[in-house]
């Protein structure tokens, strides 16, 4: 069952700003793993200021973006990296990029140009997909996430009828690491879709369940 919106869904313009913030969070998390790119963190923060994106960031995102180089907790760096899956959903919802299959990890390079990363926003017209389309996507992704989290206990009939595969194989034939990877992707994509549907005022507060 899909809940009615608890909050006013974001406008297309706000969804675009949120996608830019999520891409910045992803970049900051990736920079943590690459000391040679630590000098770019200052440039990233300056871009956030220049593009007036700080007001769109949640408190946890602000803390991550402002963390000193080498100072991110491993869990925060991992969670920040998964935000790229939210970028993928938001860009798809705005018609800016196709949505990768659930078992295909989103790549930051696909979204830099359309989101004007570390540059000004390009002149593009913004419009969100319809609410029924977003609702259908959220429901399907939340369902797939639940199956991935409970592959070992799911009903055989449910697994047999699910159009869910990992690298062309049934989830029951996939390794645990592969299943966990796709479940994490589904989790982040549900959060992005739920935020678009007004399920929480703050992106970080969206639940990834139906």
Characterization of the model:
This protein is mostly helical. It has 2 domains: 12-110, no CATH class; 131-205, no CATH class. 50% of the residues lie in helices and 2% in strands. It has 7 helices and 2 strands, in the order H-H-H-H-H-H-E-E-H. A two-stranded antiparallel sheet has the order 1-2. A hairpin with a 2-residue loop joins strand 1 (165-166) and strand 2. Helix 1 (12-32) packs antiparallel against helix 2 and helix 5 packs antiparallel against helix 7 (176-196). The longest helix is centred in the N-terminal third of the chain and has 21 residues, at 12-32. The N and C termini lie close together (6 Å). The relative contact order is 0.17. The mean pLDDT is 90.
Structural descriptors:
210 residues; mainly alpha; 2 domains; two-stranded antiparallel sheet; 2% strand
Share of residues in strands: under 5%
Uncertain runs: none
What is the CA–CA distance across the termini? 6 Å
Query: How many domains make up the 3D coordinates?
Result: 2
Overall radius of gyration: 17 Å
Helix content: 40-55%
Largest sheet: 2 strands, antiparallel
Mean pLDDT: 90
Computed structural class: mainly alpha
Would you list the SSEs in sequence order as H and E? HHHHHHEEH
Number of helices: 7
Secondary structure: number of strands: 2
> Shape from CA axes?
globular
* Largest beta sheet: strand ordering: 1-2
In short:
With 210 residues, the protein is mainly alpha-helical. Helices cover 50% and strands 2% of the residues.
Could you give the topology of this structure?
Elements: H1 12-32, H2 40-50, H3 59-66, H4 74-93, H5 131-149, H6 156-161, E1 165-166, E2 169-170, H7 176-196
Antiparallel strand pairs: 1-2
